[in-house]
Design brief:
Number of strands of chain A: 12
Shape of chain B: globular
Distance between the termini of chain B: 34 Å
Helix content of chain A: under 10%
Oligomer: heterodimer
Order of helices and strands of chain A: EEEEEEEEEEEE
Strand content of chain A: over 45%
Helix content of chain B: under 10%
Strand content of chain B: over 45%
Order of helices and strands of chain B: EEEEEEEEEEE
Radius of gyration of chain A: 14 Å
Distance between the termini of chain A: 41 Å
Largest interface: A-B, 23 and 24 residues
Radius of gyration of chain B: 13 Å
Number of helices of chain B: 0
Structural class of chain A: mainly beta
Shape of chain A: globular
Largest sheet of chain A: 6 strands, mixed
Chain lengths: 113, 115
């Protein structure tokens, strides 16, 4: 079946270093829609960025991701981590006709001074 | 002005008791969802609905019922609460018109503790 894998459950980085959170997916559908949601402590999860276009970079709030259908990946990146980036990040996939999101297990990102 | 609201925000329930979690959205969205969040499992879909008076099972529906009496309201019902249902529950809504590209808008969550 369709699935999303976020290998890292926890990523701890020092402020100023680059961020890369991994997301890979599996689906039989060619029209894959990929999302990154961010969940800050004591807030609601919210959309960070999304894409359905192969090899096109998508950016929002300093983060960027490129959907690579050849490798079924949609990694989230940021050039320089900030303390305020500490949060739980979810990768999600939407395919087929029922419009549901298939969620990865999430990556907790902790940025230290 | 929050578009998705949930009540209560936290609740302590006794094992075997009935619990109802409520969700209200003002987004005029057709789709509504109930998720639970557990450490290590991320967000898991319990039930969802794409039209009033109809609900669908998600990935982990056992032990939960859902009710969608109107487009704006979506409830999650635990008839016999169990310890394993201690979690944070999120409601969300999305626009069916955007199909697979639709963003889900989340409520603030309800922290449920079953003792």
């Amino acid at each position: 079946g369709d699935s999303v894998t976020q290998k890292e459950g926890l990523v701890t980085l020092t402020e100023g270093l680059p961020v890369m959170l991994n997301c890979t997916y599996q689906t039989i559908y060619s029209n894959a829609f990929l999302f990154w949601y961010v969940h800050y402590l004591n807030e609601s999860p919210r959309l960070l960025l999304k894409s359905s276009t192969d090899n096109k970079r998508t950016e929002h709030q300093g983060f960027h991701a490129t959907l690579h259908k050849s490798s079924s990946s949609f990694h989230l990146q940021k050039s320089s981590a900030q303390l305020s980036d500490s949060a739980l990040y979810y990768c999600a996939l939407s395919v087929g006709s029922n419009y549901q999101l298939i969620w990865g297990s999430g990556t907790k990102l902790i940025i230290k001074p | 002005e929050a578009a998705v609201t949930q009540s209560p925000r936290s609740k302590v329930a006794v094992t075997g008791g009935k619990v109802t979690l409520s969700c209200h959205q003002t987004n005029n969205h057709d789709y509504m969802y109930w998720y639970r969040q557990d450490t290590g499992h991320g967000l898991r879909l319990i039930h969802y609905s794409y039209v009033a008076d109809s609900t669908e099972k998600g990935d982990i529906p056992d032990g939960y019922k859902a009710s969608r009496p109107s487009q704006e309201n979506f409830s999650l019902i635990l008839e016999l609460a169990s310890l394993s249902q201690t979690a944070v529950y999120f409601c969300a809504s999305s626009d069916a018109g955007l199909a697979n590209y639709a963003e889900q808008f989340f409520g603030p969550g309800t922290r449920l503790t079953v003792l």
